[in-house]
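Worked problem 6 (solution included).
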Amino acid sequence: MKRGISVGKSSIRKLFAVIAIICLLCSQPLFTQAAVTTDTTINNTQGDYYQNVTDFIKEFYNGDVSETKLLQGALKGMFATLDPYTTFFTPEEASQFYGILGDNFVGIGVVLDKKDDYVIITKAFPGSPAERAGLCPGDKIASVDGRSIIGVTTEEAASRIKGAAGTSVKIGIIKAGNSSITEVVLFREMITMNPVSYEVRNGIGYIKLESFSVNSAECVKQALDEMDKENITKIVLDLRDNGGGYVDQAVNIAGNFVPKGLITKLNFKSSLIQDQEFYSLLDKTKYKLAILVNGHSASASEILSAAVQDTNAGTLVGTKTFGKAKVQNLIRLLTPEATKKYQDMLGIKTIIPEVLTAYGITPTADEILGTVKITTGLYTTPKGRMIDLQGLTPDVTVPDPVPINGVDVNSIQKLRKVSKPDLGDNSVDVYNAEKILKLLGYDVDTPDSKLNDKTFVAIQKFQSDNNIHSYGILDYSTQQLLNDKLNRLYTEVDAQYSKAVDVLNKD
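Solution. The predicted structure is:
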Protein backbone atom coordinates (compact mmCIF):
# COMPACT_ATOMS: atom_id res chain seq x y z
CA MET A 1 0.00 0.00 0.00
CA LYS A 2 1.32 3.44 -0.92
CA ARG A 3 2.20 5.33 2.24
CA GLY A 4 3.07 8.76 0.85
CA ILE A 5 5.19 11.47 2.39
CA SER A 6 5.83 11.28 6.15
CA VAL A 7 4.49 14.31 8.03
CA GLY A 8 4.95 14.39 11.80
CA LYS A 9 2.51 15.47 14.48
CA SER A 10 4.53 18.61 15.21
CA SER A 11 4.36 19.71 11.57
CA ILE A 12 0.59 19.30 11.43
CA ARG A 13 0.18 21.30 14.64
CA LYS A 14 2.37 24.13 13.31
CA LEU A 15 0.46 24.11 10.05
CA PHE A 16 -2.93 24.52 11.68
CA ALA A 17 -1.60 27.10 14.10
CA VAL A 18 -1.32 29.56 11.21
CA ILE A 19 -4.11 28.44 8.87
CA ALA A 20 -7.19 30.60 9.33
CA ILE A 21 -10.00 28.11 9.71
CA ILE A 22 -12.66 30.62 10.61
CA CYS A 23 -14.84 29.73 13.53
CA LEU A 24 -17.62 31.14 15.59
CA LEU A 25 -16.44 31.86 19.10
CA CYS A 26 -13.17 31.41 17.27
CA SER A 27 -10.64 28.98 18.39
CA GLN A 28 -7.94 28.04 15.95
CA PRO A 29 -8.16 24.26 15.61
CA LEU A 30 -4.88 22.36 15.74
CA PHE A 31 -5.22 18.92 14.15
CA THR A 32 -2.64 16.29 14.99
CA GLN A 33 -1.44 13.52 12.70
CA ALA A 34 -4.45 11.52 13.91
CA ALA A 35 -6.57 13.71 11.64
CA VAL A 36 -5.43 11.49 8.80
CA THR A 37 -5.13 7.73 8.49
CA THR A 38 -3.50 5.30 6.12
CA ASP A 39 -6.01 2.56 6.91
CA THR A 40 -7.94 1.76 3.74
CA THR A 41 -10.00 -1.00 5.34
CA ILE A 42 -13.42 0.44 6.16
CA ASN A 43 -16.87 -0.88 6.85
CA ASN A 44 -18.77 -0.46 3.61
CA THR A 45 -22.24 -1.32 4.97
CA GLN A 46 -23.44 2.24 5.35
CA GLY A 47 -21.73 3.28 2.13
CA ASP A 48 -23.50 0.49 0.26
CA TYR A 49 -26.82 1.49 1.80
CA TYR A 50 -26.30 5.12 0.80
CA GLN A 51 -25.59 3.96 -2.75
CA ASN A 52 -28.76 1.84 -2.72
CA VAL A 53 -30.80 4.88 -1.67
CA THR A 54 -29.16 6.95 -4.41
CA ASP A 55 -29.97 4.26 -6.99
CA PHE A 56 -33.55 4.15 -5.71
CA ILE A 57 -33.93 7.91 -6.20
CA LYS A 58 -32.50 7.76 -9.70
CA GLU A 59 -34.88 4.95 -10.59
CA PHE A 60 -38.11 6.39 -9.21
CA TYR A 61 -37.72 10.17 -8.93
CA ASN A 62 -39.29 11.93 -11.91
CA GLY A 63 -36.91 14.86 -12.12
CA ASP A 64 -33.28 15.88 -12.38
CA VAL A 65 -30.95 14.19 -9.91
CA SER A 66 -27.58 15.59 -8.83
CA GLU A 67 -25.39 13.23 -6.82
CA THR A 68 -23.57 16.21 -5.33
CA LYS A 69 -26.84 17.75 -4.12
CA LEU A 70 -27.96 14.38 -2.75
CA LEU A 71 -24.74 14.05 -0.75
CA GLN A 72 -24.95 17.65 0.48
CA GLY A 73 -28.53 17.00 1.55
CA ALA A 74 -27.49 13.87 3.41
CA LEU A 75 -24.78 15.79 5.25
CA LYS A 76 -27.22 18.56 6.13
CA GLY A 77 -29.46 15.95 7.71
CA MET A 78 -26.62 14.31 9.63
CA PHE A 79 -25.24 17.49 11.14
CA ALA A 80 -28.70 18.90 11.87
CA THR A 81 -29.31 16.03 14.29
CA LEU A 82 -26.49 17.17 16.59
CA ASP A 83 -27.55 20.56 18.01
CA PRO A 84 -29.13 23.83 16.78
CA TYR A 85 -25.69 25.35 16.14
CA THR A 86 -24.18 22.57 14.03
CA THR A 87 -24.93 22.63 10.33
CA PHE A 88 -23.53 21.88 6.91
CA PHE A 89 -23.15 24.67 4.34
CA THR A 90 -22.84 24.29 0.62
CA PRO A 91 -20.04 26.50 -0.79
CA GLU A 92 -22.61 29.17 -1.69
CA GLU A 93 -24.16 29.11 1.79
CA ALA A 94 -20.72 29.23 3.40
CA SER A 95 -19.87 32.32 1.38
CA GLN A 96 -23.05 34.00 2.60
CA PHE A 97 -22.32 33.01 6.18
CA TYR A 98 -18.80 34.43 6.07
CA GLY A 99 -20.31 37.61 4.66
CA ILE A 100 -22.53 38.03 7.71
CA LEU A 101 -19.43 37.98 9.91
CA GLY A 102 -17.69 40.46 7.63
CA ASP A 103 -18.35 44.12 7.00
CA ASN A 104 -21.31 43.87 4.61
CA PHE A 105 -23.76 41.48 3.03
CA VAL A 106 -26.89 41.46 0.89
CA GLY A 107 -30.09 40.74 2.77
CA ILE A 108 -32.89 42.31 4.78
CA GLY A 109 -30.69 43.32 7.74
CA VAL A 110 -31.49 40.92 10.58
CA VAL A 111 -29.62 38.65 12.96
CA LEU A 112 -31.30 35.30 13.51
CA ASP A 113 -31.24 32.71 16.28
CA LYS A 114 -33.17 29.55 17.13
CA LYS A 115 -35.64 29.20 19.98
CA ASP A 116 -37.57 25.96 20.23
CA ASP A 117 -38.91 25.26 16.73
CA TYR A 118 -38.81 28.87 15.59
CA VAL A 119 -36.15 31.02 14.00
CA ILE A 120 -36.35 34.36 15.78
CA ILE A 121 -35.04 37.82 15.03
CA THR A 122 -32.53 38.99 17.62
CA LYS A 123 -31.52 42.18 15.84
CA ALA A 124 -32.81 44.40 13.04
CA PHE A 125 -30.04 46.69 11.84
CA PRO A 126 -30.78 50.41 11.92
CA GLY A 127 -32.07 51.67 8.58
CA SER A 128 -32.32 48.16 7.13
CA PRO A 129 -35.33 46.89 5.12
CA ALA A 130 -36.31 44.77 8.14
CA GLU A 131 -36.30 47.68 10.56
CA ARG A 132 -38.15 49.95 8.12
CA ALA A 133 -40.84 47.26 7.91
CA GLY A 134 -41.19 47.20 11.71
CA LEU A 135 -39.46 43.88 12.38
CA CYS A 136 -37.83 43.77 15.80
CA PRO A 137 -36.08 41.44 18.27
CA GLY A 138 -38.32 38.63 19.46
CA ASP A 139 -40.31 38.35 16.24
CA LYS A 140 -40.68 34.74 15.06
CA ILE A 141 -40.24 33.95 11.38
CA ALA A 142 -42.82 31.36 10.39
CA SER A 143 -42.46 31.36 6.62
CA VAL A 144 -40.37 32.62 3.73
CA ASP A 145 -42.05 33.14 0.36
CA GLY A 146 -45.04 31.10 1.52
CA ARG A 147 -42.99 28.09 2.67
CA SER A 148 -42.91 27.19 6.36
CA ILE A 149 -39.52 27.37 8.06
CA ILE A 150 -40.73 26.09 11.42
CA GLY A 151 -38.17 23.55 12.60
CA VAL A 152 -35.38 24.51 10.17
CA THR A 153 -31.94 25.74 11.22
CA THR A 154 -31.05 29.42 11.34
CA GLU A 155 -28.64 28.85 8.47
CA GLU A 156 -31.32 27.33 6.25
CA ALA A 157 -33.69 30.17 7.13
CA ALA A 158 -30.99 32.72 6.30
CA SER A 159 -30.30 30.96 3.01
CA ARG A 160 -33.97 31.23 2.01
CA ILE A 161 -34.18 34.87 3.03
CA LYS A 162 -31.05 35.93 1.17
CA GLY A 163 -30.97 36.74 -2.52
CA ALA A 164 -29.78 39.27 -5.04
CA ALA A 165 -29.95 42.96 -4.19
CA GLY A 166 -33.18 44.53 -5.42
CA THR A 167 -35.20 41.31 -5.33
CA SER A 168 -38.13 40.81 -2.97
CA VAL A 169 -38.84 38.23 -0.29
CA LYS A 170 -42.10 37.64 1.60
CA ILE A 171 -41.61 36.98 5.32
CA GLY A 172 -44.29 35.54 7.58
CA ILE A 173 -43.90 37.06 11.05
CA ILE A 174 -45.44 36.16 14.41
CA LYS A 175 -45.19 39.10 16.78
CA ALA A 176 -44.66 38.60 20.51
CA GLY A 177 -47.93 37.83 22.26
CA ASN A 178 -49.69 36.93 19.01
CA SER A 179 -50.38 33.62 17.32
CA SER A 180 -51.37 34.89 13.88
CA ILE A 181 -48.91 35.28 11.00
CA THR A 182 -48.46 38.65 9.31
CA GLU A 183 -46.78 38.59 5.90
CA VAL A 184 -44.40 41.40 4.97
CA VAL A 185 -42.73 41.91 1.59
CA LEU A 186 -39.18 43.25 1.81
CA PHE A 187 -36.63 44.16 -0.84
CA ARG A 188 -33.11 42.90 -0.31
CA GLU A 189 -30.28 45.41 -0.35
CA MET A 190 -26.61 45.72 0.53
CA ILE A 191 -26.32 45.95 4.31
CA THR A 192 -23.14 47.76 5.30
CA MET A 193 -22.22 46.85 8.83
CA ASN A 194 -20.48 49.25 11.12
CA PRO A 195 -20.74 47.21 14.31
CA VAL A 196 -20.01 50.14 16.59
CA SER A 197 -21.77 53.44 17.20
CA TYR A 198 -20.79 55.83 19.97
CA GLU A 199 -21.37 59.26 21.43
CA VAL A 200 -20.87 61.23 24.62
CA ARG A 201 -24.05 61.79 26.62
CA ASN A 202 -23.76 64.26 29.49
CA GLY A 203 -20.19 63.31 30.30
CA ILE A 204 -20.69 59.56 29.87
CA GLY A 205 -19.42 57.62 26.89
CA TYR A 206 -22.00 55.38 25.24
CA ILE A 207 -20.78 52.59 22.93
CA LYS A 208 -23.23 50.30 21.14
CA LEU A 209 -21.70 47.07 19.81
CA GLU A 210 -23.98 45.28 17.34
CA SER A 211 -21.87 42.15 16.78
CA PHE A 212 -18.40 40.70 17.16
CA SER A 213 -17.54 40.86 13.47
CA VAL A 214 -14.09 41.05 11.91
CA ASN A 215 -13.51 44.74 12.72
CA SER A 216 -15.33 45.10 16.04
CA ALA A 217 -12.27 45.35 18.30
CA GLU A 218 -10.69 47.98 16.05
CA CYS A 219 -13.91 50.01 16.00
CA VAL A 220 -14.31 49.83 19.80
CA LYS A 221 -10.70 50.98 20.19
CA GLN A 222 -11.38 53.95 17.89
CA ALA A 223 -14.42 54.84 20.00
CA LEU A 224 -12.37 54.65 23.20
CA ASP A 225 -9.64 56.79 21.66
CA GLU A 226 -12.26 59.47 20.99
CA MET A 227 -13.49 59.14 24.58
CA ASP A 228 -9.91 59.57 25.82
CA LYS A 229 -9.55 62.82 23.85
CA GLU A 230 -12.49 64.21 25.80
CA ASN A 231 -11.24 62.74 29.11
CA ILE A 232 -14.28 60.46 29.37
CA THR A 233 -13.71 57.73 31.96
CA LYS A 234 -17.28 56.50 32.48
CA ILE A 235 -18.43 54.09 29.78
CA VAL A 236 -21.75 52.38 29.03
CA LEU A 237 -21.12 49.42 26.71
CA ASP A 238 -24.39 48.24 25.19
CA LEU A 239 -24.36 44.53 24.30
CA ARG A 240 -28.13 44.09 24.21
CA ASP A 241 -29.29 41.94 21.28
CA ASN A 242 -25.66 41.16 20.39
CA GLY A 243 -25.69 37.48 19.45
CA GLY A 244 -21.92 37.05 19.34
CA GLY A 245 -19.35 36.31 16.65
CA TYR A 246 -15.58 35.97 16.72
CA VAL A 247 -14.03 35.21 20.08
CA ASP A 248 -10.75 36.94 19.23
CA GLN A 249 -12.76 40.15 18.88
CA ALA A 250 -14.37 39.61 22.29
CA VAL A 251 -10.97 38.92 23.85
CA ASN A 252 -9.36 41.99 22.26
CA ILE A 253 -12.22 44.21 23.42
CA ALA A 254 -12.01 42.73 26.93
CA GLY A 255 -8.34 43.74 26.97
CA ASN A 256 -9.47 47.37 27.20
CA PHE A 257 -11.41 46.79 30.41
CA VAL A 258 -10.38 43.56 32.19
CA PRO A 259 -7.30 43.67 34.46
CA LYS A 260 -4.36 41.40 33.78
CA GLY A 261 -5.35 37.75 33.98
CA LEU A 262 -7.56 35.11 32.41
CA ILE A 263 -10.42 36.25 30.14
CA THR A 264 -11.79 32.86 29.08
CA LYS A 265 -10.78 29.26 28.51
CA LEU A 266 -11.93 27.14 25.57
CA ASN A 267 -12.23 23.44 26.30
CA PHE A 268 -12.56 21.00 23.39
CA LYS A 269 -13.83 17.43 23.37
CA SER A 270 -11.31 16.09 20.88
CA SER A 271 -7.66 15.66 21.75
CA LEU A 272 -6.97 16.71 18.17
CA ILE A 273 -7.80 20.32 19.07
CA GLN A 274 -5.78 22.02 21.78
CA ASP A 275 -7.60 23.76 24.61
CA GLN A 276 -6.94 27.50 24.64
CA GLU A 277 -6.69 30.20 27.27
CA PHE A 278 -6.94 33.93 26.57
CA TYR A 279 -5.47 36.57 28.85
CA SER A 280 -5.67 40.31 29.37
CA LEU A 281 -2.37 42.19 29.63
CA LEU A 282 -3.93 45.34 31.07
CA ASP A 283 -1.89 46.53 34.07
CA LYS A 284 -4.39 49.10 35.28
CA THR A 285 -8.00 49.77 34.35
CA LYS A 286 -8.89 53.36 33.48
CA TYR A 287 -12.63 53.18 32.82
CA LYS A 288 -15.61 52.92 35.12
CA LEU A 289 -17.74 50.49 33.12
CA ALA A 290 -21.38 49.42 32.95
CA ILE A 291 -22.45 46.77 30.42
CA LEU A 292 -26.06 46.52 29.24
CA VAL A 293 -27.24 42.95 28.56
CA ASN A 294 -30.50 41.13 27.83
CA GLY A 295 -31.81 37.73 26.82
CA HIS A 296 -30.40 38.12 23.31
CA SER A 297 -26.85 38.87 24.51
CA ALA A 298 -25.14 35.60 23.68
CA SER A 299 -21.93 33.78 22.94
CA ALA A 300 -19.05 36.25 22.50
CA SER A 301 -21.15 38.87 24.32
CA GLU A 302 -21.22 36.55 27.30
CA ILE A 303 -17.46 35.91 27.13
CA LEU A 304 -16.83 39.64 27.46
CA SER A 305 -19.57 40.23 30.04
CA ALA A 306 -18.51 37.27 32.18
CA ALA A 307 -14.88 38.39 32.18
CA VAL A 308 -15.92 41.85 33.35
CA GLN A 309 -18.24 40.42 36.00
CA ASP A 310 -15.76 37.84 37.33
CA THR A 311 -12.94 40.37 37.64
CA ASN A 312 -15.10 43.18 39.07
CA ALA A 313 -14.05 45.36 36.14
CA GLY A 314 -17.57 46.71 35.71
CA THR A 315 -21.27 46.25 36.42
CA LEU A 316 -23.73 44.23 34.36
CA VAL A 317 -27.16 45.89 34.07
CA GLY A 318 -30.27 44.45 32.43
CA THR A 319 -31.78 40.97 32.22
CA LYS A 320 -30.30 37.46 32.19
CA THR A 321 -28.24 36.69 29.09
CA PHE A 322 -28.98 33.94 26.55
CA GLY A 323 -26.65 31.25 27.94
CA LYS A 324 -24.56 29.94 25.03
CA ALA A 325 -21.09 28.70 25.91
CA LYS A 326 -20.76 26.36 22.95
CA VAL A 327 -17.83 26.84 20.60
CA GLN A 328 -18.18 26.22 16.88
CA ASN A 329 -15.50 25.70 14.27
CA LEU A 330 -15.98 26.19 10.56
CA ILE A 331 -14.18 23.37 8.73
CA ARG A 332 -14.23 22.70 5.00
CA LEU A 333 -14.82 19.19 3.66
CA LEU A 334 -13.43 17.55 0.52
CA THR A 335 -15.63 15.90 -2.09
CA PRO A 336 -15.63 12.08 -2.20
CA GLU A 337 -13.75 12.23 -5.51
CA ALA A 338 -11.05 14.48 -4.06
CA THR A 339 -10.78 12.30 -0.95
CA LYS A 340 -10.19 9.24 -3.17
CA LYS A 341 -7.78 11.14 -5.42
CA TYR A 342 -5.52 12.25 -2.58
CA GLN A 343 -5.76 8.88 -0.87
CA ASP A 344 -4.40 7.26 -4.03
CA MET A 345 -1.78 9.99 -4.45
CA LEU A 346 -0.52 10.23 -0.85
CA GLY A 347 -1.63 7.04 0.85
CA ILE A 348 -3.69 8.93 3.44
CA LYS A 349 -7.41 9.24 4.01
CA THR A 350 -8.76 12.63 5.11
CA ILE A 351 -11.76 14.79 4.36
CA ILE A 352 -10.10 17.97 5.70
CA PRO A 353 -8.44 19.92 2.87
CA GLU A 354 -6.09 21.86 5.17
CA VAL A 355 -4.27 18.62 5.99
CA LEU A 356 -3.15 18.47 2.36
CA THR A 357 -1.21 21.74 2.60
CA ALA A 358 1.39 19.87 4.66
CA TYR A 359 2.07 17.98 1.45
CA GLY A 360 2.29 21.15 -0.62
CA ILE A 361 -1.20 20.66 -2.08
CA THR A 362 -3.98 23.22 -2.22
CA PRO A 363 -7.30 21.67 -3.30
CA THR A 364 -9.22 23.49 -6.01
CA ALA A 365 -12.62 25.10 -5.38
CA ASP A 366 -14.46 22.28 -7.14
CA GLU A 367 -12.84 19.78 -4.76
CA ILE A 368 -14.61 21.38 -1.77
CA LEU A 369 -18.02 19.83 -1.08
CA GLY A 370 -18.95 22.37 1.59
CA THR A 371 -18.24 23.62 5.09
CA VAL A 372 -19.46 22.28 8.41
CA LYS A 373 -20.07 24.58 11.37
CA ILE A 374 -19.75 22.12 14.20
CA THR A 375 -19.87 22.45 17.97
CA THR A 376 -16.43 21.37 19.16
CA GLY A 377 -16.21 22.61 22.74
CA LEU A 378 -17.33 24.89 25.55
CA TYR A 379 -15.86 27.97 27.16
CA THR A 380 -15.64 28.87 30.84
CA THR A 381 -15.35 32.24 32.58
CA PRO A 382 -12.29 33.48 34.52
CA LYS A 383 -13.74 31.95 37.69
CA GLY A 384 -14.41 28.66 35.90
CA ARG A 385 -18.16 29.17 35.59
CA MET A 386 -20.03 27.19 32.95
CA ILE A 387 -22.91 29.36 31.71
CA ASP A 388 -24.25 27.20 28.88
CA LEU A 389 -28.05 27.05 29.13
CA GLN A 390 -27.74 29.16 32.31
CA GLY A 391 -26.77 32.63 31.17
CA LEU A 392 -25.34 35.44 33.24
CA THR A 393 -27.44 37.09 35.93
CA PRO A 394 -26.77 40.87 35.88
CA ASP A 395 -25.37 42.59 38.95
CA VAL A 396 -28.36 44.94 38.69
CA THR A 397 -31.52 43.47 37.18
CA VAL A 398 -33.73 45.91 35.28
CA PRO A 399 -36.60 44.80 33.01
CA ASP A 400 -36.17 45.19 29.26
CA PRO A 401 -37.61 48.40 27.81
CA VAL A 402 -40.79 47.98 25.78
CA PRO A 403 -41.54 49.85 22.56
CA ILE A 404 -43.68 52.97 22.96
CA ASN A 405 -46.14 53.65 20.16
CA GLY A 406 -44.44 50.78 18.36
CA VAL A 407 -40.98 52.38 18.50
CA ASP A 408 -37.86 51.07 20.25
CA VAL A 409 -35.87 54.10 21.38
CA ASN A 410 -32.58 52.23 20.95
CA SER A 411 -33.29 51.59 17.28
CA ILE A 412 -33.14 55.33 16.49
CA GLN A 413 -30.09 56.89 14.91
CA LYS A 414 -29.25 60.54 15.49
CA LEU A 415 -30.25 62.85 12.65
CA ARG A 416 -27.17 63.65 10.57
CA LYS A 417 -27.82 67.28 9.59
CA VAL A 418 -26.48 66.74 6.07
CA SER A 419 -29.63 67.76 4.15
CA LYS A 420 -32.98 69.51 4.74
CA PRO A 421 -35.74 67.10 3.63
CA ASP A 422 -38.91 68.72 2.36
CA LEU A 423 -42.34 67.34 1.45
CA GLY A 424 -41.96 64.28 -0.78
CA ASP A 425 -38.23 63.80 -0.09
CA ASN A 426 -36.74 60.44 0.94
CA SER A 427 -34.04 60.23 3.59
CA VAL A 428 -32.92 58.03 6.46
CA ASP A 429 -33.16 61.19 8.57
CA VAL A 430 -36.88 61.36 7.82
CA TYR A 431 -37.16 57.76 8.99
CA ASN A 432 -35.46 58.49 12.31
CA ALA A 433 -37.29 61.81 12.73
CA GLU A 434 -40.61 60.00 12.38
CA LYS A 435 -39.55 57.56 15.10
CA ILE A 436 -38.71 60.38 17.48
CA LEU A 437 -41.94 62.21 16.69
CA LYS A 438 -43.91 59.02 17.25
CA LEU A 439 -42.23 58.51 20.64
CA LEU A 440 -43.10 62.09 21.53
CA GLY A 441 -46.74 61.41 20.70
CA TYR A 442 -47.07 63.17 17.34
CA ASP A 443 -49.39 61.68 14.72
CA VAL A 444 -47.27 60.03 12.00
CA ASP A 445 -47.69 56.84 9.99
CA THR A 446 -45.45 53.80 10.42
CA PRO A 447 -41.94 55.27 10.09
CA ASP A 448 -40.38 55.02 6.65
CA SER A 449 -37.98 57.19 4.69
CA LYS A 450 -40.53 59.41 2.90
CA LEU A 451 -41.63 62.79 4.21
CA ASN A 452 -45.34 62.55 3.40
CA ASP A 453 -48.19 64.94 4.17
CA LYS A 454 -48.81 63.53 7.63
CA THR A 455 -45.14 63.80 8.61
CA PHE A 456 -45.00 67.32 7.18
CA VAL A 457 -47.87 68.38 9.45
CA ALA A 458 -46.28 66.61 12.45
CA ILE A 459 -43.01 68.50 11.87
CA GLN A 460 -44.92 71.77 11.66
CA LYS A 461 -46.62 71.07 14.98
CA PHE A 462 -43.32 70.03 16.61
CA GLN A 463 -41.69 73.24 15.40
CA SER A 464 -44.59 75.33 16.67
CA ASP A 465 -44.58 73.57 20.06
CA ASN A 466 -40.87 74.39 20.42
CA ASN A 467 -41.12 78.02 19.28
CA ILE A 468 -39.16 77.70 16.06
CA HIS A 469 -40.20 78.57 12.50
CA SER A 470 -43.13 76.27 11.68
CA TYR A 471 -42.88 75.38 8.00
CA GLY A 472 -42.65 71.55 7.91
CA ILE A 473 -39.13 71.29 6.49
CA LEU A 474 -36.72 69.10 8.42
CA ASP A 475 -34.03 71.76 8.65
CA TYR A 476 -30.86 71.61 10.72
CA SER A 477 -32.32 73.44 13.72
CA THR A 478 -35.27 71.04 13.80
CA GLN A 479 -32.98 68.04 13.46
CA GLN A 480 -30.80 69.25 16.34
CA LEU A 481 -33.86 69.81 18.51
CA LEU A 482 -35.11 66.30 17.72
CA ASN A 483 -31.67 64.93 18.65
CA ASP A 484 -31.82 66.82 21.95
CA LYS A 485 -35.26 65.35 22.64
CA LEU A 486 -33.87 61.88 21.83
CA ASN A 487 -31.11 62.33 24.42
CA ARG A 488 -33.78 63.00 27.02
CA LEU A 489 -35.86 60.03 25.85
CA TYR A 490 -32.96 57.62 26.41
CA THR A 491 -33.12 58.10 30.17
CA GLU A 492 -36.90 58.52 30.32
CA VAL A 493 -37.82 55.47 28.23
CA ASP A 494 -34.85 53.09 28.67
CA ALA A 495 -34.73 52.16 32.36
CA GLN A 496 -31.72 49.89 31.82
CA TYR A 497 -29.63 52.70 30.38
CA SER A 498 -30.86 55.07 33.07
CA LYS A 499 -29.79 52.62 35.80
CA ALA A 500 -26.38 52.17 34.18
CA VAL A 501 -25.91 55.95 34.30
CA ASP A 502 -26.90 55.95 37.98
CA VAL A 503 -24.38 53.19 38.70
CA LEU A 504 -21.58 55.11 36.96
CA ASN A 505 -22.41 58.37 38.72
CA LYS A 506 -22.23 56.84 42.20
CA ASP A 507 -19.06 57.66 44.11
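Discussion: The longest strand covers residues 368-380.
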